[in-house]
Amino acid sequence: MSAILPLRLEDVSFAAGGRTIIERATLSLEAGPSTIILGANGAGKSVLMRLMHGLLAPTTGRVAWSGEGARRRQAMVFQRPVMLRRSAIANVTYVLEVAGVPAAERERLAADALWEVGLRDLAHRPARVLSGGEQQRLALARAWALHPEVLFLDEPTANLDPSATREIETIIKAFDAAGTKIVMSTHSLGQARRLGDEVIYLHQGRVLERAPIDRFFPHPASPEAAAFVKGELPWA
Amino acid sequence: MLDALVSGLQLVATLDLQLWQIVGLSLAVSLSAVALASLLGLPLGAAIAVGRFPGRQAVIVVLNALMGLPPVVVGLVIYLLLSRAGPLGAFGLLFTPGAMVVAQTVLVLPIVAALARQSVEDAWREYEEQLRSLGVEGARAALTVLWDIRFSLLTAVLAGLGRASAEVGAVMIVGGNIDGVTRVMTTTIALETSKGDLPLALGLGMVLIAIVLVLNAGAHLIKEAARRRYG
Amino acid sequence: MGMTSRVLLAMLVCASAQAQTSYITVASTTSTEQSGLFKHLLPAYEKKTGVQVRVVALGTGQALDMGRRGDADVVFVHAKPLEEKFVAEGYGVQRFEVMYNDFVLVGPKSDPAKVGGTKDIVGALQKIKAAQAPFASRGDKSGTHFAELQLWKMAGIDIAKDKGPWYRDTGSGMGPTLNTAAGMNAYALTDRGTWLSFKNRGDLVISVEGDQRLFNQYGVILVNPAKYPHVKKELGQAFIDWIVSAEGQAAIAGYKIGGEQLFFPNAKR
Asked: What is the CA radius of gyration of chain C?
């Protein structure tokens, strides 16, 4: 089974409701470095991620994975997790069933995933009564059980308090250590520096800049990025 | 009105055997029809909610309109189908409780399907992205959402039950209101009214309303308990 | 899911149990059903033979239509010309006379058309039309409706042409028509049986009775198995044989409300 990365976006544009939201994005995502997508509100980060993940179809251009079966070898965690009205562990066995994992293995793999994110003791709690942080960890457990090659995260800690945020970041690092490519959008520059290896800066739907973390933050190349970093800094 | 109430209570208190036989048949017919209509209608509604196909809006409009199918018209059509002179006469279903279940199922199916469609469509906005991201599509996605909102769907089922237990037009025509065989609460009320025994008819009416109230209360309690447990 | 399966299973058991009971379907009229005659007559028959008699009570016209569609095994109605036509058209095997009762004209105690206490039904109808007193008609192709139309004809009145707002066509059964008549203090033609067991009389009383022309004959016919092979001809014929037999006729005579006999057996022996 060949790798699905690199993911190539070729001249991808997306328009809706008469507005162009993503304009002629061309880039290639390689395996390895954790990619942070940065940008102001309304820059198009969420839409760009959904285009990459395949939830949206580009209006023009092409989104091309390198290997076969990319659909099943990636996962996404959203800002607001959506849990099924069943127990925490049942939410994980559900995705394993969808993925075609034989029944005998599902319980075990689900339990492993829950242990990985620290939810083992809450396995049989109804998922919808869990706290925001616990639900987000459960979302990550769901993704973990699938051992994806790419994990997309759309502002995963935007609604969480600092301690829950730390827990989530720990798990994301675990994904990275296990070999999953991380593609994450965030508002927090501190989080970007903690988790990212490279930055893609999005401004009004256009990919303005792409650079390794160490080069982007002290010296963003474009004036818009510089303004963004300076403006955001008080809240980093 | 007061003697109506007294009549009704007397009937219940004396555990009148005929009354309980009629009540039992009414419940058996309506509950069976609702069960059948739900089995067919809930997945149908979910499929329409989640699916995207040409003419979808027209299908939704027609489905909603069918909620208002006149019971007496349904009764007439089913009668013509089940009559010995009709295409399905060989089954000998006319003037049996089976025919009544068929007619009420036809009446209730659009109600359950249309309301389920609305509920699933509302929920779909919440679930769609996550499910598609997990690789869940089509029928599987529709059924997953359907099961997830199962307690809200009780409302659709109750609406169907209300319609079935309240109607008289369909069961009268296809059942024939045969004493001891196809006589249910609503047809009995119609009969007693036409015999001029209005207090008895009213009394029966109150028994019918009380039964439907109890069923609704039960369903409500189930919903509340589930909400507390599952979130 | 367990609950649903259990309910369906119970229904299936009930249905198959009912299918095993032998029964016949009799299309009859609302007058025989609502007078309570069948409730008195049938349990005796069922006990004796073990055959359940399922009565679908409609108007005479509808009952005969049911026979024409093959949805009944026996028809038991009261409109001789229509019954004879039914047999002549090949839908029925043979017509047997069973019993008779009579029609009565009921009307408000205040008697606006001044017909109370007379024996002349034709004269009474003419007076009602002249006075334009409210009259409630069944208008539903029933035996009673048919008889009413015959009486208007005998009175020399073309009711279809000459009716005015005083003539209320309810299009419903005897009971609902009487309810309407009681509600609007109107005259109405009804069979004595339904009247005797009718409880919502309001201000209505019997205005005209005893006229020979108010005689109302009931007949019973087996639906033709040559036309509809599924008709239960042995069981149906057994019921007909019983109802014209001495035993059946005695049972009919034995039905009384408040000491008054409703139906008078007159089967030809």
From this structure: 20
Co-location of C226 and C162 in the same domain: no
Q: Which stretches of chain B drop beneath a pLDDT of 50?
A: none
Domain that holds residue C261: 2-100+217-265
> Would you tell me which CATH number, out of the four given (3.40.50.300, 3.30.160.390, 3.30.70.20, 3.40.50.11320), belongs to the domain A7-235?
3.40.50.300
Burial of C56 (0-12, 13-18, 19+ CB in 10 A): buried
Residue A90 CA to residue C2 CA, distance in Å, equals: 22
Positive or negative, the CA dihedral B105, B106, B110, B111 is negative
Q: Is B227 on the interface with A (CB under 8 A)?
A: no
Cα angle, residue B9 at apex, residues B7 and B10 outer, rounded to 5°: 65
pLDDT in tens, chain C (269 residues): 455 556 556 555 555 555 567 999 999 998 888 888 999 999 999 999 999 999 999 889 999 999 999 999 999 999 999 999 999 999 999 999 999 999 999 999 999 999 988 899 999 999 999 999 999 999 888 889 999 999 999 999 998 888 889 999 998 888 889 999 999 999 999 988 888 888 888 899 999 998 888 999 999 999 999 999 999 999 999 999 999 999 999 999 999 988 888 899 999 86
| Separation in Å, CA A41 to CA A13, A186, A203, A232, B88 | 19, 10, 9, 11, 65
CA torsion, points A154, A158, A162, A163, in degrees to nearest 10? -50
Q: What is the CATH number of the domain that holds C114?
A: 3.40.190.10
> What span, in angstroms and rounded, lies between the C-alpha atoms of B220 and B51?
30
Residues of A in contact with B139 (CB under 8 A): none
Tokens 């008195």, located at residue: C40
Partners of residue B135 in chain A, C-beta under 8 Å:
71-72, 98-99
Kindly tell me whether chain B and chain C come into contact, counting contact as 3+ Cβ pairs under 8 Å.
yes
Evaluate whether B34 touches B116 at the Cβ level (below 8 Å). Answer: no
Stated pTM of the model: 0.85
Share of chain B above pLDDT 90, in %: 75
Q: Residue A233's pLDDT is what?
A: 46
C-alpha B206/C-alpha A143 separation (Å) is 56
* Same domain, residue pair C125 and C192: yes
pLDDT digits (tens, 9 = 90+) for A1-36: 678 999 999 999 999 988 999 999 999 999 999 999
Cα within 13 Å of Cα(C181), Cβ side: 36
Q: Which residue has the tokens 């995260």?
A: A153
The answer to whether residues C223 and C236 touch, using CB atoms and an 8 Å cutoff, is yes
Kindly state whether residues C92 and C12 are assigned to the same domain: yes
Condensed to tens digits (0 to 9), the pLDDT of residues A132-169 reads 999 999 999 999 999 999 999 999 999 999 999 999 99
Contact B83 C176 (CB under 8 A): no
Chains A and C touch (3+ CB pairs under 8 A): no
Whether C219 contacts C83, CB under 8 Å: yes
Q: Which residues of A touch B134 (CB under 8 A)?
A: 75, 95, 98, 142
ipTM over 0.85: yes
Is B34 strand, coil or helix?
Answer: helix
Three-point CA angle B168, B173, B176, nearest 5°: 100
